[in-house]
Amino acid sequence: xxxxTYLFGFGKSFLFALAxxxxxxxxxxxxxxxxxLTAGASNATRAALAIKIARNVFLLLAAAMIAGSTVLNFFxxxxxxxxxxxxxxxxxxxxxxLHSSDAGMQRAVELAEGYTPEMAxxxxxxxLTFPISCGPGSIAAAxxxxxxxxxxxxxxxxxxxxxxxxxxxxxxxAIFLCFRFALQLLRPLGENGTAVFMRMMAFLLLCLxxxxxWNGLYALFQDLAM
Length: 226
Hints:
Layout: H1 3-25, H2 27-37, H3 43-75, H4 79-98, H5 105-114, H6 117-123, H7 128-133, H8 136-148, H9 154-180, H10 182-186, H11 190-225
Helix pairs in contact: 1-8, 1-9, 2-9, 2-11, 3-8, 3-9, 4-11
C-alpha cells in the first residue's frame, strides 16, 4: 500500500478524533465544576489534580477507542445502558453541586484544612475524571470513533488508531490548561459572580445528565418496540 495512503489515514483519523471528541468534552465548560468540587484546595493541589485528570482522560478515551466495543460486547452491555447509568452519575453529581451551601470565609478555611492530598488522590478519577471531565457521552463517542477507524487492512487500521492518539493527547493538554487556570479564568467575575456562574453550570450539568439518560432510555424503548 502506498505511503501516501498511510499518511492520509493518519491525518484524517487525527482530525476526525479531535473534531468529534473535543466539543463533547468541552473542558472550558467543565472547568468551573472542577473548581467547585475542589473548593478549598491549594493551587499546588489543583495543579497536581489537573495533571492527573488530563492523564486519566487520555487513558480512558484511548481504552474506549481501542477496546471499548469489544469489552461491551463481551459483557453484553449496550451503549444505551451505558448512557443511562452514566447520565445518572452526572445528574447526581450536579444535584449535589446545586444544593451545596456557599462557602464563606470560615467555610473556606475549613475546606482548606480538610482538603488533603489523600482526598485529592481519591477524587482524581471519580468524580473529577468520570463522569465530570469524561462522561458517558464522551466514552460512547470514543467507542464510535474507534469503530469508525477500523479497516479490513490491519496495517492501515493500526495507523489510523495511532493517528487518533495525538488528538487525545491534545485534548488532555486542553483539559489540563483549563483546569489548571480555572481560578484565573473566573476571577474577573468576582465572588458573587463566580457563585452564580457555578450554579448555572451545575444546572446545565444536571440537564446534560438528564439528556444522556433520556437518550439511553429512548434507544432502549425503541429496541423494545421493534
